[in-house]
Amino acid sequence: MFRTVPKTTLLAPIQRRTLLNGNYPKAYPEHVPLTCLGRAVLAVGSGFGTFFDSRRGDLVATLGEATAQPYFIYKLREQMLKDPTGRRLLREQPRMTSKSLDLDKLRNMKVGSIGRTYVEWLDKEGVSPDTRAQVRYIDDPECAYVMQRYRESHDFYHALTGLPIIMEGELALKAFEWANTGLPMSGLGMVLTPLKFKPKQRKRYFDVYLPWALYNGFRSKPVINVYWEEVLEKDAEELRRDLGIEQPPDLRQMKKDMAKKK
Amino acid sequence: MLRSTTLQRLRPAVFRVQRWNSTTTSAPKPSTTHSDIVVVGGGPAGLTIAAALKHYPETVNKSVTLVEFGSLDNLKTWGPDMERFENRVSSLTPSSVEYLTKIGVWEHVNRDRVQAYRHMTAWDGVSGSKVQFNTTQLMGEGRDIAYMTENFNLQNGLLKQLANKPNLTILDKTKVEGVERTPESHNKPLVKLSNGSTISTDLLIGADGANSPVRTFSGIEARGWDYNTHGLVATVRLANEQQSAWQRFLPTGPIALLPLPNRFGSLVWSTTPKMAAQLKQLTPEQFVMMVNCAFNLEPTDIEYLVEHPDEIMTDAPYRLSQRSSNPDVPCPIVAVQDKSRASFPLKMKHADTYIAENVALVGDAAHTTHPLAGQGLNMGQGDAQSLAIAIRNAAGRGADIGSTLTLEPYWADQYFKNHKLLGVVDKLHKLYSTRNPLVVGLRSLGLDAVNSVKPVKDFLMSQAS
């Protein structure tokens, strides 16, 4: 008798509506409507996951979405609404992929340009613009785009600052992003992850990178409003100047220097 | 709602008074006549008190002189077609209308140009939480929340009612140049007019607007503050017929759309003086788009578009299309009436007292308020009613109509009632002019609670009407 009950009928009600799954209609195709409790569970779960394994990009992304709503993602959209370029981004909603960016063309751009710096950085770190996850848990479709744009721009922030994707670099960039965008996930990462650092790492982080990140993040213009696709030819140093960002010390070089001193 | 003319009217009057006082002490006395009651100001409050005094048998034989600085000719012959509506419109509450009916004025008001409404929606522009009032649910069938009436329509009706009344003199285009009390006049006010005559009176009623010369002459202080906000009014055309009032609280100030007959609407947009000036300079198309944005988009969006008028016609339609149709938002505005955009500064002001020996203040002369509750004119109507009854009671007893003992009931009736209303409106304005997320959260919680608890709503409705 038990065998005759198909598995799907047992699972079906859970998919339709539970404590965690909201029953409101999808605002965009990839949307997963959640209840408040659902969002909280997601935040706690992905938070723990991220803390113990910060290489899990999917968990970091989920944590970002679960904590951005309500309020924070709307504040970020407000920053875009205050700026002509930000408004144009919201209207045109461009997406960044390895196709739309034409990486080969970027490799042939002049040294020091945003496009070249970005692609060199991608090649050096061995990542691709296609590794960015789709936004699912943000309810407002326009805010979902803001989140998506923030995520896709992340690699450009690396290119802009020259911070590597080792833990300290990633964290310094998180701190910069928190100061600049106000998204709580970046703030959580900035505060909690250093607990796992070795003393030397921690000293470097607190003495050099954190002050750099916070100072520049607060001071510079909102980097979410950069139309990266249009500034690829621009000199990175010039863009940094336009935005009001100083370049941080090269982290890998500094590591080597510190190792030599020993 | 507010009369902008009072401002220009004022300063020269005060200036001349001093000059007159200093020169007339030795000069021969000009011709002096007596009028039992002198009403200064031909606005709704002044005309209503005159009409009320001429209604009661106890006061109908008292001689009344009404002095108005401006010309009343246009008001007497006023009667535009149904394709034009004035931009100064007030929301008359049922109790104001009840009294106007009682004293025979309401029948002279052109009722085709009055729009009753039974629904009202107010919502928070930052959080979106809202409160809805609906009289058919709250107060039984057949009750209206209020009646949208052009101020000119009301004044025209009042003047019709006052036409050919005995013992009533209306002096328009006449300025009050000074008020003096001398031992010969038994310390009663001597009102010196710009036409050279002087009137001695038992009771001087100041219905002369926010910068009331009568109040100044009487040495009554009015205290309050500037909201540093301007009220922009305009007559707009709506996409379809409406019987609802709408108000959205933006951090820069509330924007309200009130229904008028024939698909017209009255707009009151309270905002920063700078933004009000920018809005007045927009082309009609841009302005219409901007008003629709103001009811739909985020405050940041609205502020950006006002700052960048070039982008209104290109960017705003896209922004509006991103908002899914929201049933809480009024129907689109399709046009703005030519030359109907005007703005004036908003102030909270309350006179220390409404009465002195032989003097009473009513309407804006006694108090000014923010238009967000639509109560400014109604407060003046309440004053006129209460003061007229106090005078009637004294006249019936044969008592001195100018003594503070006679006027005291008026003050007792109205002062604290008005003070409470001024305070509530002032706090509402302050509560909604912040974007602090904590305050926004709390006020939204409060508004949602009000919206879901019926007795609270009933109480608020009864207070408003």
From TrEMBL, chain B:
EC number(s) recorded for this UniProt protein = 1.14.15.45, 1.14.15.46
**What's the main place this protein lives?**
mitochondrion
**Can you list the GO cellular component terms from the UniProt entry?**
extrinsic component of mitochondrial inner membrane; mitochondrion
Compartments where located: Mitochondrion inner membrane
Which reaction equations make up its catalytic activity? a 4-hydroxy-3-(all-trans-polyprenyl)benzoate + 2 reduced [2Fe-2S]-[ferredoxin] + O2 + 2 H(+) = a 3,4-dihydroxy-5-(all-trans-polyprenyl)benzoate + 2 oxidized [2Fe-2S]-[ferredoxin] + H2O; a 2-methoxy-6-(all-trans-polyprenyl)phenol + 2 reduced [2Fe-2S]-[ferredoxin] + O2 + 2 H(+) = a 2-methoxy-6-(all-trans-polyprenyl)benzene-1,4-diol + 2 oxidized [2Fe-2S]-[ferredoxin] + H2O
What the entry lists under NCBIfam families is as follows: COQ6 (TIGR01989), Ubi-OHases (TIGR01988)
PANTHER family, alphabetically? UBIQUINONE BIOSYNTHESIS MONOOXYGENASE COQ6, MITOCHONDRIAL
For this entry, the protein name equals Ubiquinone biosynthesis monooxygenase COQ6, mitochondrial
Species whose genome carries this gene: Yarrowia lipolytica (strain CLIB 122 / E 150)
Q: Which gene encodes it?
A: COQ6
